[in-house]
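Hey, can you fold this?
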Amino acid sequence: MWAFLGLASIITAILNIEKWMRGQEEKFFRFASISLTALTMCAFYSDGAGRVTAEDWGGLMDIMPSMSGALWVCVGASILINGITLFPKVKQGQNKPSIRKS
């Protein structure tokens, strides 16, 4: 389950950047990507908890050391990628970023 949620998070992050580059509204994709990243972490934790309950120590020793580092990297990347769209896009020929008025 966590692999599916992680893949969906990556796809929505890419869509977020694509919409931002085109100057379109990207808030939905930013929210979806961050939410799916959080759900990925919860699903991974739940998987680990299920292995502890089942006393599958071999499974824990195989998965947890490598995946915990990978999840840190993926969450950090998700935050950075989705954070890019919080800044105004610099248009070509301008030195200063344009300010969006709400």
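Oh, and this one too while you're at it.
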Amino acid sequence: MTHCACAIFVRATRLLLAKRAPHKAVCPNCWDVIGGHVEPGETVEQALIREAKEEVGLTPLRFTAVGSILKPEPGSNDEAAYHFFIVFEWSGGEPVLLGDEHTEFRWFTIEEACALEALALTDYRDLFRSLPLST
């Protein structure tokens, strides 16, 4: 099974989503959370921090697990476990686009995020609606 760490950055009552680049094999041009595959020898939490730094230049400091979603792994006969963390505090200031994973990012209200047609996973709508947006 493939494991993925997924960061849902929250500022006030808005979520940070990034639009996947059109050349990506999986979910091109779809809005997605920040994250990626857990590498061998990494914990899910370590992957969460690494992926956030690599994709948007932010280091999660205070975060909590908010659930997992199991889906078939695209392009294989395996399953993928997407582990979601809500990130309430980070270092690095404002997010910046790094690498070629995404073409843009935006802060959305939960309602705006759920109204997006092009979400990487349709299960995001239920997940977003269930988020505790303060601690």
